[in-house]
Amino acid sequence: MQEKIFCFLWGFGNSEHFLYPSIWDFGGVLRMMICYPGLTKLKMKPIVYQNVLLASDSGTLEQLKELSSKRKAIEETFNETSCVTDAIAREISGGLTSGCEQDIQKLEQYLPLLENLVRHVKTKGKNHQMICWISNLRIRWSSVLTSSSMFHIKGPKFYQVNDIYFELGMILFLYGAMLHERALEVLSSDIVQSAALFRKAAGVYNYLAQEVLIYLIQDEDRPPEATCRMSSILSLICLAEAQAITARKAEESGKTGGLLAKLHYGVTEFLIEAIDVLRVTTKECKDISSRLLDYILSCKTLHELKCYKYIAEGLQNDGKIGVAVGVLRQALANAKKSMPKEESWRSVFKKAVDDASVQLRKYEHENEFIWRERVPCNDELPLPEAVKIVTLIPYQPQKWERSLVFKL
């Protein structure tokens, strides 16, 4: 059933092709959503692998140098120390004009080499010499999710975790963040690609939580980005954002209010789950930025309000004007308690509140002068139903198995 709804909304007939009207207002999608940018603002300290890991043959040495070269390209980009011009960057990337796509390509070139190194280090994990070498790599990353990361008077705080899984985890976090940023970049021009990128980012974060960070040593002084629960939260956020696009597209194409209410409440359910995980996470990691919780709560309340707006429309059409008034009153009361702190989010949020307020005044006036129906109490009001039609796109690491021999 969910697959049929998904195909119906997105214009898929068979899996062979899809069509969507060119008259849709893609910019309207961007104006009606609140998004969480800035996840890519991570910094890292340099790593030169061949200076620490002693190769036993020329092939291993070349691979370590290639690792260092790919890592340096990422360092220069995200530390903002690169001197490469835009024209040269396009040429290096094979003609990619988007900075996001260029950065994603750099990460995708580094990841197979890093995964191969991690596999070899894992087989020698108990070797004392290998443990010392990994420690001497001094793998250090900053955070974008801590409250202290908002202040840069002395520069960002760097976390050092002496585990190769820390490097893999942070690179994958950055990869998911870049996919998320690219999804926002194309949102106003290609809504289908944007939703796919959000789902792909959700898959990366899910893989990070399930397959990588479980191996990371339990070090108290590590950033939230290197915790399983935070990766799960971000996976849920990306799914919620993909579902929000689906709901907005359904609105633009004139789908029924009942379906729209369920789609918006599907967004809310993803975010309720994220909030539950975040509350547990904040007990373990005290320095998580309140901005993340503010975003999740604001987005949850926004889509909850939109859900109730469509429920009220359906009730009014069915002649249940008193219940419609009660639903809107409750939704608006809840929404006004959760006004976002960030200005860009407040403008979107305020527009939704204003629209629902106009609708409520209309229903109240109609009920007062025509129908005179009783307005039920909150516990008598109908509960919303959810339809979640988006799923993550599983991350499949590129297998690149090359032999590495060290002087152990």
What does this structure look like?
The model is unreliable at 1-30 (pLDDT under 50). By secondary structure, the chain is mainly α. A two-stranded antiparallel ribbon has the order 1-2. Helices cover 61% and strands 1% of the residues. The protein has 2 domains: 36-256, alix/aip1 like domains (Serine Threonine Protein Phosphatase 5, Tetratricopeptide repeat); 302-376. The protein is elongated. It has helices at residues 2-10, 26-31, 58-78, 86-92, 99-123, 128-136, 164-186, 191-212, 228-252, 257-284, 290-317, 321-336, 343-371; strands spanning 140-141, 159-160.
For the structure shown, list the relevant keywords.
13 helices, BRO1_dom, 2 domains, mainly alpha, two-stranded antiparallel ribbon, Serine Threonine Protein Phosphatase 5, Tetratricopeptide repeat, BRO1 domain-containing protein, 2 strands, single chain, 408 residues, 61% helix, disordered N terminus, BRO1_sf
